[in-house]
Amino acid sequence: MQLPLHTLLSLLAVGPTLVTAHATLISLSIAGQDQGKGADKYIRAPATNDPIRDLTSPNIICNTNGGKPAPSFVKAAAGDKLTMRWWHYNPDDPNDYPLDPSHKGALLTYVAPYTTGDGQGGIWTKIAEDGFEGGKWATEKLIANNGNVEVTLPSALAAGRYLVRQEIVALHQADFAGNDPAHPGRGAELYPGCAQVEVTGDGGKKPDQGFDFNKGYKYDDKGLHFNIYVPFDSYTPPGPRPWKG
Ligand SMILES: [Cu+2]
């Protein structure tokens, strides 16, 4: 029997080599126009590409530098297609890759009214989600699409400044809950990235789900504690169902 790579690594209790397998949000294209690398320009770039596992930490919202505003915004119209690009380390390195294939899981996208803070509190609304559809994990599509994930800004979205937060929910260690004392270090790995987007083309509706990550994401949520290594029928991502406006 062949074991999945991460199961094998967990059994061997190999830690440090996993550090090289993570990813960050690096750039956006808006309606097909590449906005260039976003780190410390319009993306609140984290200190490292490491996952966040502590669901009580503000770092699950916009990562480790979530409270550090970037200097600029990219502009998009309500109804525009956003292509958000993820990469392991360096997209200019031909030997590098978007995401380790062991990191199977969901891609979720939320918006909040712009804040210079780190995004704590009930300010978030989910606008898109992709978990397991058509026999494929969202992360498998990301890898096949060279790191790119396409979402559409709701056409109902009111004009204004927003944080657009996309996250990878990687489930390769999530066969145990993230707070299971018998299995420290396991649980879902969250890779959140927040971009600063100014929305034009007024759809007039303010997103109103009022979702709070630190209250709404729980260790026993079936979207965050899920065994990908056994047969299953369906997967429901954590958080609310997407807002349509
Ligand atoms: Cu990783």
From TrEMBL:
Superkingdom: Eukaryota
Keywords linked to the UniProt accession: Carbohydrate metabolism, Cellulose degradation, Copper, Disulfide bond, Hydrolase, Metal-binding, Monooxygenase, Oxidoreductase, Polysaccharide degradation, Secreted, Signal
E.C. no: 1.14.99.56
Compartment(s): Secreted
Annotated protein name in UniProt: lytic cellulose monooxygenase (C4-dehydrogenating)
Organism: Dichotomopilus funicola
Swiss-Prot/TrEMBL cofactor(s): Cu(2+)
Signal sequence region: 1-21
GO biological process entries: cellulose catabolic process
CDD domains registered for this protein in UniProt: LPMO_AA9
The Auxiliary Activity family 9 catalytic domain, residue ranges: 22-230
Reactions it catalyzes: [(1->4)-beta-D-glucosyl]n+m + reduced acceptor + O2 = 4-dehydro-beta-D-glucosyl-[(1->4)-beta-D-glucosyl]n-1 + [(1->4)-beta-D-glucosyl]m + acceptor + H2O
UniProt xrefs under InterPro entries: AA9, AA9_LPMO
Protein family: Belongs to the polysaccharide monooxygenase AA9 family.
Gene Ontology cellular component terms for the protein in this record: extracellular region
Molecular function via GO: hydrolase activity; metal ion binding; monooxygenase activity
